[in-house]
Amino acid sequence: MPFDLFAANPAWSVSELTLALNRVPYVPGLVGRLGLFRPERLSTTTTMVEVQGFRLALVPETPRGAPPPPDVVDRATMTAIQIPHFAIRSTVVADSVQNVRAFGTDSQLEGVQTVINQHMESMSRKLDVTLEFLRLGAVRGKVVTAVDRITGAPIVERDVFRLFGLTENPVIEWPIIGAGAIGQE
User: Fold this and answer.
1) pLDDT tens digits along 114-152
2) Residue 54 CB partners (closer than 8 Å, separation 6+)
3) Is 158 helix (H, G, I), strand (E, B) or coil?
4) How many angstroms separate the most distant Cα atoms in the chain?
């Protein structure tokens, strides 16, 4: 009797596929769903943000008929911001599909378009989570655009408070100048 290579190797035996699980990681999106940010399409690598501060201040009491005190007007400031670039690439080669069983099947071969779609979906999810992380950083005041892949430590971090000349104040205070009890300075 001749030796049958396929019968002797358990890898060539047919067994029924019971279950195929496609693990898709959760992509957070709460900050994006809150609508705090409005996407803007730009054709430049730098954007300018103009800020005009409107300070709140109590208007002092004056006698009727007396000249009112002059208003103090804040000057506008311009801040240049380099727009970060986030790119990711993937390559599908012949070995990605040749002699490869399609996921979740017993005997079908993997199709080129299926592999391309899987790569596109994976990259899309990575960009979605990156955008959500950037939004969260903007809300916190520290935008991290690059981290060490081993330690997770920030490599590139932009401090929004410093960028706009603000001081980080974790305590919420009454924002009106001069507010308080009579006699307080």
Assistant:
1) 999 999 999 999 999 999 999 999 999 999 998 888 898
2) 74
3) strand
4) 121
To which residue do tokens 């008929």 refer?
Answer: 65
Kindly tell me the burial class for residue 144, based on how many C-beta atoms sit within 10 Å of its own C-beta (0-12, 13-18, 19 or more): middle
CA 175 vs. chain centroid, Å, equals 30
Answer whether 55's CB lies under 8 Å from 177's CB: yes
| Lowest model confidence (mean pLDDT) among 17-21, 26-30, 69-73, 138-142 | 17-21
Whole-structure pTM value: 0.68
- What's the pLDDT at 178? 53
Q: Tell me which residue has tokens 């959500």.
A: 132
| Residue whose structure tokens are 């311009």 | 78
Q: Where are the domains of the chain?
A: 85-169
